Amino acid sequence: MREYDNCRFGARFAEGAEDIARAQRLRWLAFRAGNGAAGRDGLDADAFDPLCRHVLIEETRSGALVACFRLLPLARGAEIGRSYAAQYYDLSGLLDFDGPMAEMGRFCLHPDWHDPDILRVAWAATTRFVDEEGIEMLFGCSSFAGTEAEVYVDAFAMLKERHLGPRRWLPRVKAPDVVRFARNLSGRRPDLKRALKAMPPLLRTYLTMGGWVSDHAVVDTEMATLHVFTGLEIRAVPSGRARALRAIAGTGPAMARGGGIRA
What is the CATH number of the domain that holds 155? Predict the structure, then answer.
């Protein structure tokens, strides 16, 4: 397992079916157990799992799984229809993106673990993957818990005011139930303190690196979430932030293509 800067956590790729099942059990616990959603044998599994590289974040001393996510590499924008996000968004604007892409999905933290270093390690592992694969755009769905948009009005107003994606890449509406926050909140000024407090940690990190979002949120009743499409062009990451992430990700051995992070 790969450790970072004397951190108590490490990251590695799943090495087989049991590792993937561990991730699926954690996903079920994080996404489904508390909202009454169905899950086969306590697993959150779908047709995208076999297509993805699965990353496990573990506590180094105990081996406890504290977070996980998956990465779906795409050769270029022409393959965007293969992504999980394409089920919910019209991504035709990204078809002409001429560079390698990767979808980061199903990111979740174990509900009993709240150490900020977990997210730090997750981004270090992602940085390593992005650099090794030559990824030029990272994207995914950033989820807000629950389906009541009113709870997140300041967060959505902040996204509308500061973080909407470029017109040429902006996803169009595809899902039957959406919250058009860019249109509906056109006159609202966000309370930034409340907005940041309501923002999911993963999305906050995307935004500090220059990420952008769709102009609407999808109401996902199956997962009991509201989610926004989130994109990050790697060249847009501030140089200081990129150096810091690469300093963490670049120490020691790399994440091995064949499985795991080798010591």
Answer: 3.40.630.30
Distance of CA 119 to the CA centre of its chain: 11
Rounded CA separation 175/172 (Å) = 9
Per-residue pLDDT, 251: 41
Q: Which residues contact 113 (CB under 8 A, 6 or more apart)?
A: 59, 64, 66, 67
Contact 125, 55 (CB under 8 A): yes
Q: Across-strand partners of 137? A: 101, 233
Length of the chain: 263
Would residue 200 count as lying in a domain? yes
Tokens 């997962």 belong to which residue? 223
146 is a domain residue? yes
Return the structure tokens found at 48: 């995208």
Count of domains for the chain: 1
176: left (phi over 0), alpha (psi -120 to 50) or beta: alpha
Residues in the chain predicted with pLDDT less than 70, given as ranges, are 1-6, 34-41, 250-263
- Tens of pLDDT along 71-95? 999 999 999 999 999 999 999 999 9
The pLDDT of residue 255:
39
Residue 261 lies in a domain: no
* Residue 91 contacts residue 171 (beta carbons within 8 Å): yes
- CB atoms closer than 10 angstroms to residue 46: 14
Token pair in block for residue 215: 């102009």
Query: Has residue 263 been placed in a domain?
Result: no
Range of the domain at 231: 2-249
Tokens representing 162 are: 């500061």
Residue 244: phi, psi to the nearest 5? -65, -45
